[in-house]
Write a structure and sequence with these properties.
about 170 residues; mainly alpha; about 65% helix
């Protein structure tokens, strides 16, 4: 690409950059260290970047912990709800067992077998409620045993000291 007919070529000939004089207050004889502009950053800038990176890391760890705690809380809530339901069902089992015993004792002491079906039906309902309580209790226990806490957060937080030293684990 030509510069045009009236424009002279840059000093030093074609393809050679023009000489730029040093800025005021600097020496043109200073040795070149080979450092790029990134290496010439001030300590304050470097400290600012480290602080920003650490801040981002801590925010990410807090976000991870929140997510894990929410997941664990959901599992714990489900387990607690099932255990509460098991307790409610056990309450009904106790109620119907008491009613069945009451009817059975009333039939033995009272008139005999005039109303035996009511006592037996109360025992059947009691057995049903006891089975419901057992299923809910076992399911709730299993759900609570699956709660892990915050394992990923624990793992990544343990890596922070090594990362600060520049080592990966």
């Amino acid at each position: 690409m030509s510069a045009g007919p009236n424009v002279p070529p840059p000093a030093g000939g074609p393809g050679v950059p023009p000489h730029v004089p040093p800025a005021a207050g600097t020496s043109s004889t200073a040795p070149h260290t080979g450092a790029s502009s990134d290496d010439a950053r001030s300590l304050g800038e470097l400290f600012g970047e480290v602080t920003e990176d650490l801040s981002v890391l801590m925010r990410q760890e807090v976000a991870l912990a929140k997510a894990e705690v929410q997941e664990s809380a959901k599992k714990a809530g489900k387990g607690a709800g099932l255990l509460g339901g098991a307790a409610w069902a056990a309450n009904f089992a106790l109620l119907f067992a008491s009613l069945a015993l009451w009817w059975a004792l009333g039939a033995m002491i009272g008139d005999g077998d005039d109303v035996p079906a009511l006592g037996w039906s109360a025992l059947i309902v009691c057995a049903i409620w006891a089975l419901v309580a057992l299923v809910m209790a076992l399911s709730g226990k299993k759900s609570l045993e699956s709660v892990e806490g915050v394992p990923r957060t624990t793992e990544t937080v343990q890596k922070i000291p090594d990362a600060m030293k520049g080592h990966d684990r």
